[in-house]
Design a protein that fits this description.
Elements (H helix, E strand, L loop, with lengths): L1 E2 L2 E2 L9 H4 L8 H5 L9 H39 L3 H17 L2 H18 L2 H18 L2 H37 L1 H29 L16
């Protein structure tokens, strides 16, 4: 079969002629890769925005590198100063708490609590309750039962102190009487006598062991048979 004077038979030796007669269609790679421009922007405005975006992204990358270098330098300074991560955590917590205290929310909350406290303390209910409690306290301290209880506790404390003082005096007096008794003195004399005898016996035995003529005073025994 022929079409337009050309052989399109796949087995024909002239099959390559078809490809040579096809027209090339130009393809714009930049236009295909680039997204469609948003509505309302001219090509010049789009190009300007893309240029500004590339510049901002480049600045962000530079700032990240600078920040990383500053953090390394900060870590080296802390290491040389002997500062630990715990010290940094304490400093951060202190700074955070200070920031909370000076924040508008904290200040407003403190002011609101102060206003509520003033309102409560100045209310009729609070003043009436405080006055009632003061009256009860005054009546209690002026009652006969309270006075008697206080006097009883005071007398009990005085009696306890006097009893303890008397016990100490009695014990001291008993010890003095026992040391002055005839039985204690007789026992003390016996102990002194036994001690003197033991010391004298020890001195005599020591002199006998160190005497140079102790062994020469005894005559030699004659062991010859009769």
């Amino acid at each position: 079969m022929e079409s337009g004077g050309q052989d399109i038979n796949l087995n024909s030796p002239n099959k390559g002629l078809l490809a040579g007669t096809m027209t090339d269609v130009p393809v714009d790679s930049g236009a295909s890769a680039r997204a469609a421009a948003p509505e309302g922007l001219t090509p010049a405005e789009e190009e300007e925005l893309r240029s500004e975006l590339a510049k901002v992204e480049e600045e962000i990358g530079t700032l990240r590198q600078v920040l990383a270098a500053k953090e390394r330098h900060c870590g080296e300074l802390k290491r040389k100063l002997g500062l630990t991560p715990l010290d940094g955590l304490k400093q951060n917590l202190s700074k955070s708490w200070h920031d909370v205290q000076v924040s508008n929310a904290y200040v407003k909350t403190s002011e609101k609590l102060g206003e509520w406290n003033d309102k409560v303390t100045q209310s009729d209910l609070y003043l009436s309750a405080s006055s009632t409690l003061e009256d009860w306290n005054e009546k209690l301290t002026q009652s006969e039962a309270y006075k008697k209880t206080q006097e009883t506790l005071s007398q009990a404390g005085q009696k306890t102190s006097a009893a303890l003082s008397n016990v100490g005096s009695v014990i001291s007096r008993k010890l003095g009487d026992m040391r002055n008794s005839a039985t204690f003195k007789s026992f003390e004399d016996r102990v002194g006598t036994i001690k003197s005898r033991m010391v004298g016996s020890r001195e005599n035995s020591t002199d006998g062991l160190h005497s140079p003529s102790g062994a020469g005073d005894k005559p030699p025994q004659d062991n010859a048979p009769f």
